[in-house]
Predict the 3D structure of the following.
Amino acid sequence: MNKYVKIGALIAMLSVVLGAFGAHMLEDRLTADAIDVYETGVQYHMFHAVGILLIAILIERLPSKKLAIWAARLMIIGIVLFSGSLYALALSGVKVLGAITPIGGVAFIAGWICMALAARQSK
């Protein structure tokens, strides 16, 4: 079994756990704006967990396995920085944590670019 299947599945599971935690434990403790921030983190977390799973499924079929691996790594980094900073921001209210979020967004973008390049046919 591909290690990125395991990683993607665990990251997806964590997204579900954090989403359930937010829905059931934080609903009465956070402002509506903080809940929105938290939910954005959960959404991007799950989207990119699925992205990692797709990479794991496709990796052997792609012309560049190395770029596909980098795509998965960048998505993991993006989840930690983007979603992680949104979770921390929502829970703590410390606004400076929002400065980390765009770095995670750039990691997501770079990951998708790597995936597109990995799929590109070499000539």
